[in-house]
Task: inverse folding
């Protein structure tokens, strides 16, 4: 696939990413700041929390993990911008993954801010983060991985791979549910919510038409692509959702993209086209792998035969689960379009359609 390089809109932020360090707090524009909040033991290193100045306070887009280090970094970053944690009036959460939603409850406790989340993600909070019911989610994950052909000795390890980070989330309920197209009540801002499912069922982006800015969360990033996977809490065809959502944001008239990771950039259209082309190539590769297997193959077998950014043997449990579930998302997309077919069973086997 031809290489595509976005145009960074912050040379300092880009340079920090390239050097593998955390960038500085930065003034993005009038009344708008970028605050990097560290992520523990993660190659992404940080979440970019955006601070929007309001009359008498600020709103933030995303919050970070629920660790003391992250909280202190957020407080310090607000201080650089001339504000305190008590000044936060709203926390706009793009989605419920721990690095975006984890600190929201702690921020609300300190400030009284309201928390906003899309209803599709709000509906997942209890099963994902409540100790009394999370076992049901792990059980459903285990059953799905078994159907995907994950070897028996590996299923339990992969099913519980994310349990160790659940403590990094303050599992609070949102105060407001934000729907697609909602105008956010933030004085001085004309933010509109755009529902962009795929990476999570309720992922939200926020667009400011007057400032031509897109707060893209994890939906569109400068270099990497977000995980789009079938899992027990996903929508039936998350890759179709994701590609449709990409097409929706491509139509926006924005000058700058403010993502949750890496660095800010321009040329949204070029980046969306490149990500879309990446998935088209991936779909073709998955179809080719299925077609080359005599008698069909399992999702796990397909995943082990695909091209990844590093050798499959080096993947830890969470990465293997993510890769397997991403492969399943591509298989489901192909099946819906009649290009492959699934033979039910334990495990399921995938064939080219018509074989």
Result:
């Amino acid at each position: 696939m031809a290489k595509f390089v976005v145009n960074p809109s912050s040379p300092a932020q880009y340079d920090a990413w390239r050097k593998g360090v955390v960038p500085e707090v930065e003034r993005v524009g009038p009344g708008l700041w970028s605050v990097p909040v560290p992520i523990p033991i993660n190659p992404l290193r940080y979440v970019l929390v955006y601070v929007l100045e309001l009359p008498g306070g600020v709103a933030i887009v995303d919050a970070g993990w629920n660790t003391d280090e992250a909280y202190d970094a957020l407080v310090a970053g607000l201080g650089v911008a001339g504000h305190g944690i008590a000044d936060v009036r709203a926390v706009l959460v793009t989605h419920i993954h721990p690095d975006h939603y984890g600190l929201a409850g702690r921020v609300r406790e300190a400030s009284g801010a309201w928390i906003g989340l899309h209803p599709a993600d709000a509906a997942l909070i209890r099963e994902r983060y409540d100790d009394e019911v999370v076992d049901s989610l792990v059980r459903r994950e285990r059953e799905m991985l078994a159907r995907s052909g994950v070897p028996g000795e590996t299923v339990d390890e992969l099913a519980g791979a994310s349990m160790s980070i659940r403590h990094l989330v303050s599992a609070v309920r949102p105060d407001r549910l934000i729907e697609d197209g909602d105008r956010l009540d933030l004085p001085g801002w004309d933010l509109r919510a755009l529902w962009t499912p795929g990476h999570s069922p309720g992922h939200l982006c926020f667009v400011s038409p007057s400032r031509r800015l897109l707060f893209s969360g994890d939906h569109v990033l400068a270099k990497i692509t977000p995980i789009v996977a079938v899992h027990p809490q996903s929508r039936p065809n998350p890759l179709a959702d994701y590609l449709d959502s990409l097409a929706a944001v491509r139509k926006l008239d924005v000058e700058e993209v403010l993502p949750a990771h890496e660095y800010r950039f321009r040329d949204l259209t070029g980046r969306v086209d490149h990500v879309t082309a990446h998935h088209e190539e991936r779909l073709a590769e998955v179809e080719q792998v299925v077609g080359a297997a005599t008698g069909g193959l399992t999702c796990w077998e397909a995943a082990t035969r695909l091209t990844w950014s590093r050798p499959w043997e080096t993947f830890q449990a969470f990465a293997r689960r993510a890769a397997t579930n991403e492969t399943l998302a591509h298989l489901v997309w192909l099946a819906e379009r009649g290009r492959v077919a699934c033979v039910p069973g334990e495990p399921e086997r995938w064939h080219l359609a018509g074989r």
About this structure: The chain has a mean pLDDT of 95. DSSP finds twelve helices and 15 strands in the chain. The first strand starts at residue 7 and ends at 8.
